[in-house]
């Protein structure tokens, strides 16, 4: 939680809708790529040119062909392009209202080719899902066949769905002969002060972040992509997020479950994205970034009984307006040197003081978090908190900020970091290609 650390029509089951495979593609058709999700791995499929040809060509978008406007209004008919963008959608895209985040571990039997096939099939499916389209038949022609698409999003609009795919450190180990293409800064996160991480909520080889303005649309996307992993991977950990907890350009600042505005000073300008988020001159990762995901539990009941003056001292902001304690309005620049009767008006150990760019050599990270709740814990208390997701072109920026917060943040009395992972997020694929295809070329 770094508050001030500075964003339906059905696919035809006939192969006639697929682009013709080139010579030597061994018939690696779009139908086998996407519809094969229900029938197991694509056996005997050619790799390389065949997979390239098999990726779905984008159909006409169901809505606008650009990212959603920076506004708090919800236009469910909007679709966000998947292909032919510089960066993957779901990073700078104005945060939608719901998120499903899932990680996967590659199995012992996974191969370079099966990983390649999975990324190609995911890309093909995502290009359909973001347009509000199913990924294949919901009701197959044969009554004894299994539906390719699970059907719960049938009739629903695209709802600005974005699906962002990340690659964990394990993708670049000796199993897949990809070590020479490991992104320069992709390493498992070190232990950070205050971490109480659970193994079942830590790490992962692949990540999917599905965000939409309709929770069922986001859930449908992850559910159907998870069905495609077959024997190549298995699910690891998942968080269902609601009520975005970070602000995009032009959006009203949302609130976390502690009732405070979160994301007031988030990355927003082109200059900040270029300086702190996007990778440059990074080979196949140029235009990509690094994703850090953290599951942060909040001791909600204890927090709710703390006096308001102490809550505001902990955050360094007023609860209602969200103004720094040194100012009156939310977007007033905090004055960390201001004192009254010899004491700092904003406590030097407050959340905003420790995370502010002014106090961290100007460093900013892009936050894209969501609130979550998992019902009740075994003590009958609310099991809830923040799914913290950040994007940065240097993971050390996150590590340095969080290490400082982990040591000194007054908020630590009320939170616990229980889940953590890091992923490299490649740039968006071009039409006819798939995510991270450059890895295999």
Automatic annotation (TrEMBL):
Signal peptide positions (record): none
Start-end of Basic and acidic residues biased regions: 1-11
Region annotation Disordered: where it falls in the sequence: 1-27
Gene Ontology CC: one annotated term: cytosol
Cofactor: heme b
Keywords on record: Heme, Iron, Metal-binding, Oxidoreductase, Peroxidase, Signal
One GO molecular-function entry: metal ion binding
Domain Dyp-type peroxidase N-terminal: 88-242
Domain Dyp-type peroxidase C-terminal: 253-428
InterPro entries in the record: Dimeric_a/b-barrel, Dyp_perox_C, Dyp_perox_N, Dyp_peroxidase, TAT_signal
Keyword Metal-binding: yes
Sequence similarity: Belongs to the DyP-type peroxidase family.
Protein name: Peroxidase converting ferric iron into ferrous iron
Organism this protein belongs to: Micropruina glycogenica
Biological classification of the source: Bacteria, Bacillati, Actinomycetota, Actinomycetes, Propionibacteriales
Gene designation: efeB
